[in-house]
Every structure is written in C-alpha cells, then in structure tokens.
Design a protein that fits this description.
The structure holds 2 protein chains of 2 kinds. Chain A is an alpha/beta fold. Chain A has 10 helices and 14 strands. Chain A is globular, with a radius of gyration of 23 Å. Chain B has a two-stranded antiparallel ribbon with strand order 1-2. The two termini of chain B are about 25 Å apart. The model of chain B has no long low-confidence stretch (mean pLDDT about 95). Classes of the chains: A alpha/beta, B mainly alpha.
Chain lengths: ~325, ~260
C-alpha cells in the first residue's frame, strides 16, 4: 500500500497544564509535536504525567491550560473532527465485562457514527487481525488478560483512527503475545497510522519507536529522535561470559572492570573507547569470551540517568 | 454537529441499553411484574373490595393507572441510574467519552433506554391489570403523552443521580428515601380529596401527584388536579433536568477529572 506523506503534525501540544483539585500540579506547561506517521514513545516514571497528557488529549481529563490539536483540529473548538482522528487504548482495562466481544467492537464503531454492515465488517477485520474472532460471542469477562488487552486495541482501531495512543498496552502480557502485538503495531504504523506509546518496557520503546519524549514531574526532559537520544549514551556496561573461570580482574586500560562471579566479567566502556580495544586487551590477557550482553537496555540506562540527574540537580537524592 | 454521526451513536446506545435490559430480564422485567401482581391482589382485590368506590370507580380500577405509572417511573429511573453508574464504575463510559458523539447524544441515548424499559414494564403491568379489572382509555393522547413525559423526567433524574454517584449506595439513596415516599404520597392509592385541606396543599408540592393524576385522567377521565398544570410541570421538569444533565456532562462532573 502506498501512503502519501502527511506534513501536518498528528499531535500538537502547547503549554499544557494540569492542576488537580487536590493541588497536585501534574503538568507544568508541556510542549510536544508528533509528526504524522511517527511511532512515538512517551516515557517517564510512575506519576510523571504521561497518563494525564493522554487523558487530556482524549478528553477524559479537563486541562487547566494550554492547547491540544489532533491533525490540526483543536480539541476544544473542533472536538468532533479531533476525536474522529483519535483511537485510545487506555492503561486500565475498561471493558464492559458483561458485553460480548463482537458487540463491544461494533458498539464502539457506532459511537463514531459507523453503523450496520460497515461496523460489522470492521469488527470482523480487527477481531481477526487480533486473533479474537473465534471469541466474538463470548463475554469480555471470560477472556484472559492478554485477550482483553488485544480487544481494547481492536476497539480502538474499529473507526480506523489516524492517531492511535496506547497507554502501556503490553502491561502484564506474556512475551509471545507482546511480540505479536509489536508486529501488528508496526504493520499499522507502516500503513500510515501515527502511534504514540507509553510503556515501562524500554526494550519495547527502543524496538518500536523512532522518536522519544521523556516526561518527569510534569515537564518534558528529553524530546528527540531515538537515534539522537541513544547517541547521547556516554557509558555502557557490558557483561562478558568467559570460557574459563577467572580468579583476578585483569587490567584493562581505558575500561573499568569487575568480576560478577568466576565466569562473568562486568566492563564499563566510556565514549572514547570501542569494543575492539576491549577484545584486543582481553585476548592479550588470554581471556576468551563466549558471549556478551548489555547490563541494562541502552534506553533504560539513558532513561535512569536523565531522571536521576534531574532529581540530583533538584537536590532530590 | 454531525447529525448523521450522532443519530447512529444514539441508536447504538439505545440498542446497547435494550440488549442489557433483555439480557438481565430476571432483574429488569420479572420483579415489577410480580410486585404489581401482588399490589393488584392485595390492595385491589382483597382490601379494595372493602373500600368500595373512589371518584365513581371501583378501587381496583382507580389504583390501576397509578400502579402502571409507579412501575414506569421506578423502572425508567432505575434503568438509567444503574446503567450509567455501572458504565462509570467499570470505566466503559470512556468508550463514549473518547468518541465524537455529543454530550446531548449520550444523554438522549441513555434516557431513551430508560423510557423504553419504562414503556416495556408499563405495558406488562397494564396487561396484568387487565386480568383484574376493566380499563377503557378516556383520552388516549393524554395517556400516552403523560406517561412518555413522566418517563423522560425520571430517566433524566436517574441520569443526574448516576453522574453524582460515587458508590453503589449512592444510586439507591434517592429511590429509597425520595422516590418511593413521593410515589406512595402521590395519589396512587387514594384521592387527595380524602385528605384535610392542609395536607391537600402539601400534596400539591409533590410532582408525582400531577403525573399520576394526569395519567389517571388519560385512562379514567378523572383527576384531582388541573391537566394544564400537569403538562406545565412535566415539560418544565424535562427542560430543567435535561439542561442540568447537559451542564454536568459539559463540565465533566463525576466523569472527567
């Protein structure tokens, strides 16, 4: 399928603010621009404000200030057009558990003005795509946790939104289903749907997303392309599995090394050295490496550093 | 506003509501049928025989319109309050809130569901009444319009109750402490002409009195109050409660943080 590039922003957020009734200032003036067609990660620790941003964009939370546009449609003045462009997969399971799987999806189409045969065809299309068609006559309560999550994705897609927001869609889902969901999300993104994803699985964000924003304490602390962000990673910790036991840590010039156990060496690599240097020195010391892995996911490391740095600079240690 | 979109959306809500009513028919349809049958047997047949006539009608005939109206009111209210609060409680109200359907459509869809359940139960109670007494409709238009308007009023009231409700207790407080006393004191079982003058005046502050009497006028042709007042009160309440519901939805009271 050939998709026409859309130069318009899928989502534009300007100076978004939210103060809850209890005085908690959840958002302190956020600006975000998500390009049409992007696969965008919105990350942050618990309570950082991610779900509040999504709640405001999807009209589930009233904002205290600022502006939101979805494909150029203001959510206040042009809400019908704005909402028609948006599909939401919320963090919490919010299905009518006594309704059948098929009815949940066709009803959702109805709320978007899609009725009758088209609604039924769309429901079939997305329930099949998410491997739920065989369960269409069962009530949602009878589905497993992973199936409920997939049903929420089918429900969000039935009106074929141009922007799909997924708030931790794979929380509590086993790895096999998670991978199949990733594959499906990549397919719909390639077909032209802009996707915004929040997740605590940073491997998920690194695998799927091309752009990343990190939010903490109601402020955006990073907003850039994934490749740019990862390039900022100054330090990487590698775990090397050794072919034979080692009693003493070898001297590795330019690297910090320590033994995790007899056959695993933990090596910290700075920005000025490369892995070739490391292996040359290991070989010179007669150490043979069987395998190598990152101690933490690269994005996870960067995420922790950004959030920790912010807290340290604020004296919050 | 996209009229076509909202028409489809309202139709979807109504279909969903009716599917719920029919799915849990043991909770929604059977109890009022049993309760009203008992009313007809005990109040109408056993006690009514000793009471004799009221406003020229035998007691069973006299209370039948009031009992039909009582079942319509309680079922219209109960349907909307439990369905909308249930949607809020389990979170699937968000299905509608994220969609482009208007606030008015959300209200109209739920109120229509309440009205349809009210009419369904009202029809069933009417059929049961016909096993016990003879009813001839004196003013069909008044009968239909009054029962529809009353059902709309109480569906809207149920909607507002659901908007404010935070726990399941909150949806039973109004029916128990407000709706039931007002219905029993609303002239279902007696004519207010039987009351001392002071209590007649107090009774006239009860809006349910006007609904019951106007409906009775539609069927039997007799009423304690002016039909014009009854229509004015019904239309006034519809406008007032719809405006209040719309305002609450627009502000997001109880549904948006």
């Amino acid at each position: 399928m050939v998709t026409i590039p859309d130069l318009m922003n899928a989502l534009t957020i300007r100076n978004l603010q939210k103060t809850y009734d209890n005085g908690n200032q959840a958002l302190k003036g956020i600006d975000l621009n998500v390009e049409a067609g992007d696969f965008y990660a919105l990350l942050g620790p618990n309570g950082a404000g991610k779900t509040t941003v999504i709640g405001i964009v999807s009209s589930l939370v009233n904002k205290s200030g600022g502006e939101v546009e979805i494909f150029g449609h203001n959510i206040d003045s042009d809400f019908e057009a704005a909402k028609s462009c948006l599909g939401l997969v919320p963090q919490e399971i919010n299905l009518n558990l006594w309704e059948t799987v098929g009815n949940i999806v066709t009803n959702q189409a109805g709320y978007y003005g899609i009725g009758g045969k088209v609604a039924r065809q769309r429901a079939e299309k997305y329930l099949r795509a998410l491997r739920l068609w065989d369960r269409r006559d069962d009530i949602a309560r009878s589905l497993s946790g992973g199936m409920k999550r997939r049903l929420m994705i089918a429900r969000a897609l039935v009106h074929e939104p141009r922007l799909l927001i997924l708030d931790e869609p794979t929380a509590g889902v086993d790895i096999e289903i998670r991978r199949s969901m990733w594959k499906y999300l990549q397919e719909i993104n390639e077909a032209g749907t802009t996707i915004i994803l929040t997740t605590h699985y940073l491997e998920e964000a690194e695998t799927l997303c091309r752009h990343i924003a990190i939010i903490d304490e109601g402020k955006i602390i990073e907003d850039a392309k994934m490749s740019t962000v990862l390039r900022k990673l100054q330090r990487e910790v590698l775990i090397l599995s050794l072919a034979s036991d080692l009693k003493q840590v070898p001297l590795l010039e330019g690297f910090k090394a320590k033994l995790r156990n007899d056959c695993e060496l933990e090596v910290e690599k700075g920005p000025d050295h490369n892995i070739n240097d490391l292996f040359e020195q290991l070989t010179a010391n007669g150490i043979r490496v069987v395998s190598m892995r990152n101690k933490a996911n690269r994005l996870e490391e960067l995420f922790l550093r950004l959030v920790d740095n912010k807290h340290e600079s604020a004296g919050d240690t | 506003m996209n009229i076509q979109l909202n028409l489809v959306a309202v139709r979807t809500v109504i279909r969903k509501e009716m599917s719920r009513v029919l799915r849990i028919w043991v909770q929604t349809i059977v109890p009022p049928a049993i309760t009203m049958t008992l009313y007809f047997i005990i109040f109408g047949n056993l006690i009514g025989r000793r009471i004799g006539t009221m406003d020229g009608f035998d007691y069973m005939q006299y209370i039948a319109p009031g009992l039909i109206m009582m079942s319509v009111i309680t079922n219209s209210y109960g349907n909307v309050v439990s369905s909308f609060f249930g949607a809020k409680f389990s979170g699937h109200i968000e299905e509608m809130l994220v969609s482009p359907m208007s606030n008015a459509s959300i209200i109209i869809g739920h109120v229509s569901g309440g009205v349809l359940r009210g009419m369904l139960v009202g029809t069933l109670v009417t059929i049961i009444a016909l096993f016990f007494t003879r009813l001839e409709v004196a003013h069909p238009f008044i009968m239909v319009s009054v029962v529809l308007l009353s059902s709309i009023v109480f569906s809207l009231a149920g909607f507002i109750n659901a908007v404010f409700a935070k726990k399941f207790d909150d949806i039973s407080i109004v029916p128990t402490f407000v709706l039931t006393p007002l219905t029993y004191l609303g002239g279902v079982f007696y004519s207010i002409s039987m009351l001392p003058e002071f209590w007649q005046g107090v009774s006239k502050a009860n809006p349910i009195l006007y609904m019951v009497n106007a409906f009775r006028y539609g069927i039997l042709g007799t009423s304690d109050i002016s039909i014009t007042y009854a229509y004015a009160i019904l239309v006034g309440f519809v406008i007032l409660l719809f405006s209040a519901s719309f305002f609450l939805m627009k502000k997001g009271v109880g549904i948006r943080e």
